[in-house]
Design a protein that fits this description.
13 helices; 7-stranded parallel β-sheet; 4-stranded antiparallel β-sheet; alpha/beta; Alpha-Beta Plaits; 3 domains; Immunoglobulin-like
Length: about 500
């Protein structure tokens, strides 16, 4: 890596550049193709950053050289892909209202106090949650007792203080309060898991936006520091191919067993047919969250989706912490997400061995039914979830899913004994063998019930077969033969996927 850093310093130039791209290299030869002074000089390309964990290099390319440079990079066998360093944005939709009475309808709605009584605790400081956001006011009296050292990737220093502006009233500080405000400050507020450890990782700036490269670095930092939960109240609507490096980072986290709780988005869109990332990552340890209001209905702005969104959670007019020891209301799937992240942390405090897919099934199975289109059509409930867990009631996981025709899905069990048999409620849609392996037969919906030799049973929620899944639209077309100036239509098509506004892309 010393060689890469040396080449990085040689490749940096002084010219002003137009567009940033992330280049993923397969091997050392691919890295050299980007970092060599000769390549950088020929393309007038500026190397801004390297991220070895993701095999990524951040470059800046002048507008006049963009098409040629992208094609040259993609033509190298050591380069896997090139994507724009696009902006990710926080998902808060309503500005704060200043200080107000510390009434917290959301904490009451999810029966948090009853959940703490059932568990005889309010969480555990051994559970570490990464709040990847605009930073956190770690000096806030309602937060300081639960904060650990973090990092600022927006400014590349070790001070992740939340910096406010007209666009950012204190988004990350508000999210941290929903997760784990300590509840010991008179006139303050309490989070879902008041006993927890939170690591502030800042990559969104004071305007509430940050670039792809720094978001990825924040995720990998959280992995390195051994967090159990990531709360991500941000994202972007981009083609899946463009989001590839972000999805790879999320996968690295979930492969380490980290539970990645993410906001569905505030565009009133169906995530099943829209490309919101990282919300739609789809890995087992990802929990995608829609918002609900005081009457358990969907606020008009919240995204939804029966295949891609897993649960709903209180997200409208949520009272929480704001910088400089203030408090106020914010609305958004940004606020719904940390409630679920706090609930995940609270459940992990009861049983550290719980996996993301198990906690997701637990939240879905015990959620309060509502009319919001999610996989469970439910709103999370902390007491129901912890009571189910501590009572050792049987559970099947995943509890809800959408799968393609002819696909298979393996069920797991908790708190069921030996001699388990499985039954599908609709064998025309899906069948299940006595090892819990589901096979999708044809479009339809079914539930699966498992029964052990003692008579104990558990039943899934809806398993949907053949529902339309979210797929990226065609981001570009190489045009008619002869219009592409690069000689190879396939190369032109690839270039159009990276830069849809090239002149030959339709």
């Amino acid at each position: 890596m010393n060689k890469l850093l040396l080449l990085l310093s040689l490749a940096i130039g002084v010219q002003a550049f137009a567009a940033e791209f992330l280049v993923k290299y397969r091997n050392q030869q691919g890295a050299m193709a980007v970092l060599s002074p000769r390549t950088a000089s020929g393309m007038q390309m500026q190397v801004l950053d390297t991220h070895p964990t993701g095999n990524l290099i951040l470059v800046n390319i002048p507008e006049s050289k963009k098409a040629k440079a992208i094609v040259e990079l993609l033509s190298h066998p050591g380069i896997q892909y090139v994507v724009p360093n696009f902006k990710l944005h926080s998902f808060a939709s309503v500005p704060f209202e200043g200080t107000a009475l510390r009434e917290q309808w959301a904490i009451s709605k999810v029966q948090a106090e009853k959940a703490w009584q059932r568990a005889s605790n309010k969480g555990n400081k051994n559970v570490l949650v990464a709040v990847i956001d605009t930073g956190v006011d770690y000096n806030h009296k309602s937060l300081s007792t639960n904060m650990v050292k973090g990092y600022d990737f927006a400014q590349n220093d070790d001070d992740p203080m939340d910096k406010t502006s007209s666009q950012n009233p204190g988004h990350g500080t508000h999210c941290a309060g929903v997760i784990g405000a300590n509840g010991v400050v008179e006139g303050g507020i309490v989070g879902m898991s008041p006993d927890v450890s939170m690591m502030p990782l800042r990559f969104l700036d004071e305007k509430g936006s940050g670039d792809l490269n720094n978001g990825i670095k924040a995720i990998d930092y959280a992995i390195e520091k051994g967090v159990q939960v990531i709360s991500a109240s941000w994202g972007a609507e981009v083609p899946e191919s463009t989001a590839a490096p972000l999805l790879e980072a999320v996968k690295r986290a979930t492969d380490k067993g980290i539970i990645f709780v993410v906001a569905a988005g505030n565009s009133s869109k169906n995530n099943d047919t829209s490309n919101f990332y990282p919300a739609n990552a789809g890995f087992p340890n990802v929990i995608n969250v829609a918002a609900s209001n005081t009457s358990d209905a969907k606020p008009s702005w919240s995204n939804y989706g029966k295949a891609k969104v897993h649960v709903s959670s209180p997200g409208e007019n949520i009272m929480s912490t704001l910088p400089s020891d203030k408090y106020g209301n914010l609305s958004g799937t940004s606020m719904a997400t940390p409630m679920v992240a706090g609930m995940v942390a609270f459940l992990k405090a009861q049983d550290p061995s719980l996996t993301g897919v198990q906690i997701k099934a637990l939240l879905q199975t015990t959620g309060v039914k509502n009319s919001i289109d999610t996989a469970c059509n439910c709103r999370v409930d902390a007491f129901n979830a912890v009571d189910h867990l501590l009572s050792k009631k049987p559970l099947l996981y995943p509890a809800a899913a959408t799968i393609a025709e002819k696909a298979t899905l393996q069920l797991g069990t908790m708190n069921l004994g030996s001699g388990i048999t499985y039954v599908s409620s609709n064998p025309a849609a899906l069948t299940v063998d006595n090892n819990g392996l589901i096979t999708a037969v044809a479009k339809g919906t079914a539930q699966v019930t498992a029964k052990d030799s003692s008579g104990a049973t558990a039943t899934t929620l809806d398993i949907n077969v053949g529902a339309v899944s979210s797929t990226p639209g065609n981001p570009g077309d190489p045009g008619a033969p002869g219009e592409c100036p690069l000689g190879d239509p396939q190369i032109c098509e690839i270039a159009c996927q990276v830069i849809p506004d090239l002149p030959w892309c339709k």
